[in-house]
């Protein structure tokens, strides 16, 4: 249901904003262009899938991905992938799309994302496919697994046979949940996946990928190499050293994100990526009692407590300060008593679960956002999304990866992936105040999106209703907040649109000026903003 039941059948062309496309029940790719404010031109058929594919019983929904300003990827739902040269779609020439690659890829799939780039003079198209497959090794769960296949198709013909496109590489990832977000980098150098359960690469060009051996269980506990404490502002680390160690023997390197401590002529005692950034200029180290090295690290962000010092390092021991121990003891005192009481809540009324709202709950599984390197196929960065509920994906700039929107407390924050900036791979680009809280109350919510210029966000229900949430804008009249006694300069407006249709909403897209809503019988265009 997550993979195919919530599929968005409508596609907004990010290169030509006033144009939308969808594949109809007859396998026709139809293109519609806005002519006036809310007037649509006649649907134009730009391509049609084969009759055999439409008669296939095991067919999934047909899916379309606009790869570039002149290319598109199409799946007919039976397992066939078509790459189509569309020409400049914004022109009024109404040219039909030309298939330059059509090949059976196996089990049926839908296309999640595609991108086009030129590498060493060769045109490459990267396509990301999603399948739900039976897993014979799965004995306890559902018996199915989620498969992502990353395919690279290249023009191998050179100048003499310009139209010869062939599969160059096929990479398969497997997981146990449908990805919330999945996209290939613009130059095809990597992949980003957000999901509730982790994904790993299992096959490349049909050959299994060697999986790393699981870490052996610790049979006996060894003495810790270092001890560490922390406050909201800083961290203190004590590393054991040979007695009589001199300052000249110590090798110490510290950057904002990495640390290395050791002795000359020996491998580092402690080395790796710090859990969070520190300020190297405000950090220092000294030798204490001729047998230990004490390092003080200044946190770059005050407040959050670190769960570990160096990512993945288990050779240290965290020592709680007396103040922290006393605080935790105080918080736990209400859970302890001199007398054993088997029913402490006997006199309290039972909790009414109806008093809890959707927005008070968090997803059962902790989602993560992972960046995979295209060469090594290993994760280079993994971010735990925790309670930050995933809301939607939106194409803001067609030359970059799609943005994604996460709930942060009551707000919704939009993030732009920057794979070329490893130290700042996800950049915060927009905020929709209170949208995280508001969307949680919409029980029948089906799709969510926002305008590429972030002027408004919008949600729609399964039937009939769409909600528009505008960014705050200046008010023309004098307005006062009675409780606080201050003048209000900006007001954010909410609007509700009710469609004249009883058919389920199948597609939902937003441009800077218009909202497009597709049902099985109609395509509605709502004018939201003026130029």
List the helices and strands and how they pair.
Elements: E1 11-12, E2 19-23, E3 28-33, E4 44-48, H1 51-54, E5 63-66, E6 71-75, E7 80-85, E8 98-104, E9 110-119, E10 122-134, E11 144-155, E12 165-175, E13 181-184, E14 190-195, E15 200-204, E16 207-208, E17 226-230, E18 234-240, E19 250-254, E20 258-263, E21 270-273, E22 278-288, E23 292-299, E24 316-318, H2 322-332, E25 367-373, E26 379-386, E27 390-394, E28 403-408, E29 411-417, E30 426-432, H3 435-440, E31 445-450, E32 456-461, E33 465-470, E34 473-474, E35 480-481, E36 486-487, E37 490-491, E38 494-498, E39 505-510, E40 514-519, E41 523-527
Parallel strand pairs: 17-24
Antiparallel strand pairs: 1-2, 2-3, 3-4, 5-6, 6-7, 7-8, 9-10, 10-11, 11-12, 12-15, 13-14, 14-25, 15-16, 17-18, 18-23, 19-20, 20-21, 22-23, 25-26, 27-28, 28-29, 29-30, 31-32, 32-33, 33-38, 34-37, 35-36, 39-40, 40-41
Protein name: NudC domain-containing protein 1
Subcellular location: Cytoplasm; Nucleus
Region (Disordered): 337-356
